[in-house]
Amino acid sequence: MFKSLDFLRGKRLQVPSPAARERAEGEGRTQAESRWSLLTNRPHPNPLPRCGRGGRTLVSLTLLSLTTSAIAQPKFQNLGRPATAAEIRAWDIDVRPDFKGLPAGSGSVSRGQDVWEAKCESCHGAFGESNEYFTPIVGHTKPGDMVTGRVAALRAETVPQRTSLMKLSQLSTLWDYINRAMPWNVPKSLSTDEVYAVTAYILNLGNIVPADFVLSDKNIAETQKKLPNRNGTTTAHAMWNVKDKPDTQGVNCVTNCAREVRITSRLPDYARNAHGNLAEQNRIVGAVRGADTRACASSPDAPCGSGSTATSSARANRGETAPARPATMPVTAEASTLAQKHACTACHGVKTKILGPSFTDIHKKYGPDSAAALAAKIKAGGSGVWGSVPMPAQAHVSDAEIRAMAEWLAAGKF
Amino acid sequence: MSSTRLGRLQKAPEFFITRDALTLPRDDRRAFLRKAFAAASAASVVAAAPRAFAQSSSATSAGDPAILNLPAHSKGLGQPVAARPYGLPSKYEENLQRRESPGLTRVGAASVSFAPLQGFFGIITPSGLHFERHHQGWWDIDPTQHRFMINGLVANPKVYTMDDLMRMPSVSRMHFLECGANTGMEWGNVAVPTVQYTHGMLSCCEFTGVPLKWLLDDCGIDLKKAKFILAEGADGSSMTRTINLSNALDDAIVAYGMNGEMLRPENGYPLRLVVPGVQGVSWVKYLRRIEVGDMPYATKDETLHYIDLMPDGQHRQYSSIQEVKSVITSPSGGQVLLDKGFFNVTGIAWSGRGKIRGVDVSVDGGKNWKAARLETPVLDKCLTRFNVDWTWDGKDAILMSRATDSTGQVQASISAMRKVRGTRSIYHNNAIQSWLVSPNGEVSNVQVA
Fold it and tell me: Which CATH number is A93-224's, of 1.10.760.10, 3.20.20.120, 3.40.50.720, 1.10.3720.10?
């Protein structure tokens, strides 16, 4: 198919190999001259004046010294100036794992609680457990972990959402980050003693230190030895030093590499429109168009998904608009029956919060266009949006039933 | 005419046309109607009709109205120069935007937006579509007030202004920048629909700046004691990351330029660290300080995040290198093929360990593979574009690409990756990506075994 372009493919446009380039440069020509010669197989019409031995030019030496990293360090006369001691103190705030850089000071758990309630709780929750804005700080560490220095929950078949204390292997990390980056909207506003106090409070929330504990530069190294996951990290992998041998290696097979191919995972239909209409995320010309994913999301009965008929994609191909989503979904008695059948109503009242939020509150929060998102939430479960009590995943409920309930919640006609 | 005009060129005749007359062609009602008649769907950026339908529905026996009826732009006056002093993409390209993945994060200032790889050509990411990852929001910092300090195990701790840095000799290098969590949502199962969300925490630009090695030398680095450096940002999070000294002395750049202009604010204006081959979080933005030290620093983003949970419950710490990887960007998930027949299967490959040596492509789910054409340039720690001819017969097909880098590492299947690293790592998923093409032309994200 590219035959018509063959006239462009003469030697003139061939890119020289690196080896050829090096050869040419070694013959004492400038880069520009070498390039010209390699592209044309002719000497450069205007060779630069040469001087010095071996035909090398000053120009080529200068060029090389600026463009390769293998050359001697240039001297930057009059660029930059000595940093003053005060400037280094102002910026050099990092605290290392050996606690070098840690300023002297101390803070109690109770002082930390005061600071927490004033400046941290709104994002992280009263007990550091909130999942509303950030991943939880506290939870899922056990007293036994403090003995082994390995958090057992990380080895469990089903790992709960990892909290900061489950992962924390260095106490310096916690101190340093609070000091440099917290509170979120006014970083670097805490005093040194407040940073100690908040750190102590977090450790107390994780039952790592007692309620009367005072953390200081004197005892922080001892406290490090109590961290539940202090032995939980490794650098035995090949992604730190570029010369190490990788732990994975693919197979270079070319023909008959597999007898059968089985699809093990694909996107569920209810998530088809979860990233918005894909037709609006692709160019309007070219070899392809984006799939119109609204059709499936707006009607549970519409065929959708890659294994189904061509309805939605053909519609997208024709540039047609998918049927508009009805302003309110039909309310079915069936959905409320389903909510009973699957024991949703044990935790959710229609108008009252039980363990989880009421159906009415869910509708108010997410609105009428939320069916797909709600279906995904029902399916996967979660915690933190409405409080710390987790909702378990509802993997045993069929997609169709989940979708019916999600539509019902989104419609809000209870 | 005043004397100052003497000898100067006379204004061109169009400057005697009134402003109303200039705008007339755009408002010309008849021109508009002709355009609509041509069924170009120009007003609708969403799913304009592909060629076959446009012709079959509106073509007459005489031919294509898009040819027969001259459009307004062929019969009117266009816009003057510098109408947009800083140019913008065509309005017909607005579908290609960086986007968030719904539900991934809950705070926009600590979130990520993904680059629309599905629409990119070649290897360079347009600056305005470079993916974003902010840890505490982005800033537009006054470059005249920005300072860069080097301290620690150096003979002469120094402070540089942007003037100082930009007076120095510079290098310009093209490198990819990939978040360590790119493709992280797919460790357990298929989770997102398109290549924008599976692989879009990836960009590739030409960066200009001063090799870090020169600056460390300028401060008199103590090479006997130094083993690591700490890079620190000037933003609220003052983000810190440990960099291996070998990386720092090899090809790291203290960069102010990106794609021929200054860095964009979202990408660290006016100064960022470039650490080729290493995950994006180490390319510290708003770079204010480098400290030379003799031990890793265990910063927040190397103790609590960017650590890979392994099946034995241990976390890999300081996992930094982005290993060999490739993905077909078109046809890819969420796209629909226009028709049977010829397609150029195109994608990108990269490795943090060196150059791309080759890319193989399969259209049958990995049973058989053939070598793709690598397009030049093929550069160190840089995206490489690959292309393969493919004739679609209208049947099920599964498209996959498999890259090999200059160290001989071959990209592995997702099942092989899981055998070693489990499913809970979040980070460093460089597995082979599969796209299922269904008979209806729709492409979807699948995993195969």
Answer: 1.10.760.10
